[in-house]
Design a protein that fits this description.
Blueprint: H1 3-23, H2 27-44, H3 46-59, H4 65-89, H5 94-99, E1 101-104, H6 106-114, E2 119-122, H7 129-136, E3 143-146, H8 153-163, E4 169-171, H9 176-185, E5 189-192, E6 203-208, E7 211-216, H10 218-226, E8 230-237, E9 243-247, H11 261-279, H12 301-304, H13 318-321
Parallel strand pairs: 1-9, 2-5, 2-8, 3-4, 3-5
Antiparallel strand pairs: 6-7, 8-9
Helix pairs in contact: 1-4, 2-4, 3-4, 10-11
Amino acid sequence: MTTKAVRHRLEYAIVLALRAIVRWLPDRAESALGAALGHVGYLAMPGRRRLALSQLRGAFPTRSEAECRAIARAAFVQAGRHVITVFKFSTLTPDQMRARVEYEGEDRMRLALAAGKGVIAVTGHFGYWEIMGLAHSLLLPPMSVTARQLDNPRLHEFVERLRQRTGNRVIYRNGAVRRILRALDANEIVAMLPDQHIHGSDAVRVDFFNRPVATTSAVATLALRTGAPIVPGFALPLEGGRIRLVYEPPVELPAPGSPDPVRELTQRYTDVLEMYVRRHPHFWLWMHRRWRDLDDEAGDLHDTLPRSRPIEVEDESRGVFD
């Protein structure tokens, strides 16, 4: 057995052990376990801790070092609680899940579907994003969730079963754009998390916390091509182990004649995510490198960056999954 196989087995065993423990924990103990897991991560992952602090300093230049450190620690704690909550939800029946969730703005999603062109639901690595898909389908029509395959095949199967538990489907990289287009054509919901850095010609540069970031052009291109509205949604943790799903109004489309509608539309839904992160900075995944090596590009970025290139149907929409 290879070292990788042993590691995969060990990782899976740890997940199953935590899941077995979490199944019987009351809400307060579950929250405490998640917080403890986050604190361990904060101490045991110095590289990720430094990255989170660096990005927080850049995003909030007027905040003190102590404030940035407090947000970074809270972000690790939130990530730990998210993991434990995912394990907990994997043990619940749909009725038990529904009892833990409340909804706000769900009529916006229903109204968007009434247009008959499908809906692109966007969120970020914010709050309880994994629970968003599960809980969404307890009240609203199921959706197709874009995702990357995990390196650990055992964990991949575990997460895939969880994501499909309430009727959702998962769209992976191969043939992704064709599957997304078919789903939208059938007036279905497709969920994407476009808040991570991507490389290559499919990237469009927009501002996030007043700094340029490389973002996938796939969401805006698909919306402009199909007419599907973009509806932002977020899963916020509440007291007592409950979760609130919030659906924002559809993102306004660029006016006809916009010189770069893909970039403009991408900026608009990015602004919605930024609004939520500013309100609750510790809910976002600061440990992911969102801003990467943009400062070394020649000249002023806003003047020299090329316009976005719309993706083609044959492309695999790489940035949606990164």
